[in-house]
Amino acid sequence: MRTNEVTSPASWARSLVEIDRLTKDYESVGANVQALKGISVRVSRGEFVAIMGSARSGKSSFLNILGCLEKPTSGTYALEGMDVMKSTSEERAYIRSRYVGFVSQGFDRISRMTALEYVGLPIFYSIVSNHLRNEKAKEALRKVGLPDSMYHLPHQLSRGQQQRVSIARALANDPSIVLVDEPTPQLDRRTSVEVMGILRELSDRGTTVFLVTQEPFIASFTTRQIVFREGLIVSDRDNHSPRTASEVLNDMPSIPMQGGIAA
Ligand SMILES: Nc1ncnc2c1ncn2[C@@H]1O[C@H](COP(=O)(O)OP(=O)(O)OP(=O)(O)O)[C@@H](O)[C@H]1O
Ligand SMILES: [Mg+2]
C-alpha cells in the first residue's frame, strides 16, 4: 500500500488532485447504489495512474468525478486547488473544459470532420479566432505524432490513428488531467503499445494521466496502479520500473499498415 505523504500539509499544497473520504451514491430503481464508499487519494502533476479493478468496482464513477462530469455525494475533491464539492454546475463545466481532457473511443463516429476540425472542437473558451484555434489543434496533432493527417477524414485513418486523434482532441485545451476509460479493447497489441507510449510522453511532460484498464499488461506502462474493489481503494502502488513502449515495440514483429496509411 502506498504510505505516501498524505498527512503532511506541504504535500497537500503540491498535489494536483486531492480527494478525501469521497462517496458517490446513485439512485437506481428504488435502490441506492454506493458506487464509491469513502476513498482518499492524492495525485501529483505528471503521474501516470492506472485505475484497475473488477466490473462495477467504481472505476468509471471515480473517473467521472475526477472529470467533473458528476458531483460526489460527500467528501472533498480539489483539482488544482479548486473545490469541486462547492462548485456550481456552471463552474464544473468551466473546470471540465479548461482543466480536463477526456479521451473518447471514437473519432470514427463523426465521419464528416477532418482531424483538425475534430480536435479543434473543444477549443472555445478564451480562444475566439479560427486561426488560433487551428494552431492549437495542429499543435495537439503534432504531439500525438500526426502532423501529416490534419485534413484526413476518419475513414482515411487506421484505428490507431483515430485513437491518436481522440487523444489530440483531449489535449487541445492544455488540460491538467487527461482521462481515458478503457482505450484499448478494439486495438491490436502493437497499436495499444503505441498509445501507451503517447500517454507516457504526456505524463513525462507534466500532464497527469488516469487510465482505466483491466489489463495488467497495459497497466505495466503506468507509473502508479490503484485498484478498486466494491467502491473502495484496496491497493495503491507506485510502479518504479514501468515498461516503455519503444522497448516493447522493438521486440514485436511489425504488422502491415492499417487503412493504407502509416501510423
Ligand atoms: N448512472 C448510474 N446510475 C445508477 N447506478 C450506477 C450509475 N453509474 C454506475 N452505477 C453503479 O455504480 C457501481 C459502480 O459502477 P462503475 O461504472 O463505476 O464501475 P466500473 O468499475 O467502471 O465497472 P465496469 O468495469 O463494468 O466498467 C455499479 O454497481 C453500477 O451499477
Ligand atoms: Mg467502467
Task: List the ions, cofactors and other small molecules found in this model.
Answer: adenosine-5'-triphosphate, magnesium ion
Which structural class fits the helix and strand makeup? alpha/beta
CATH topology: Rossmann fold
Reported for the largest beta sheet, the result is: 6 strands, mixed
List the strand order in the largest sheet: 6-7-8-3-9-10
Count of discrete domains: 1
CATH class: Alpha Beta
What Rg, in angstroms, do the CA atoms define? 19 Å
Number of strands: 10
Strand content: 25-35%
Order of helices and strands: HEEEHEEHEHHHEHEHEEH
- The coarse overall form would be globular
CATH superfamily membership: P-loop containing nucleotide triphosphate hydrolases
Weakly predicted, low-confidence segments: 3-12, 257-263
What is the level-2 CATH architecture name?
3-Layer(aba) Sandwich
Report the average pLDDT across residues.
87
State the helical fraction.
25-40%
Task: Please report the number of helical segments.
Answer: 9
Distance between the termini: 39 Å
Give a short synopsis of this structure.
It is built from 9 helices and 10 strands. It is α/β, with parallel strands linked by helices and 263 residues long.
Structure description:
With 263 residues, the chain is an alpha/beta fold. It has a single domain (15-250), classed as 3-Layer(aba) Sandwich (Rossmann fold). Helices cover 32% and strands 25% of the residues. A 6-stranded mixed β-sheet has the order 6-7-8-3-9-10, sandwiched between helices. A 4-stranded antiparallel β-sheet has the order 2-1-4-5, covered by helices on one side. β7, α7 and β8 form a beta-alpha-beta unit. α5 (130-143) packs across α6 (159-171) and α6 runs parallel beside α7. The structure holds adenosine-5'-triphosphate (ATP) and magnesium ion. Adenosine-5'-triphosphate binds at residues 26, 28, 33, 35, 53, 55-61.
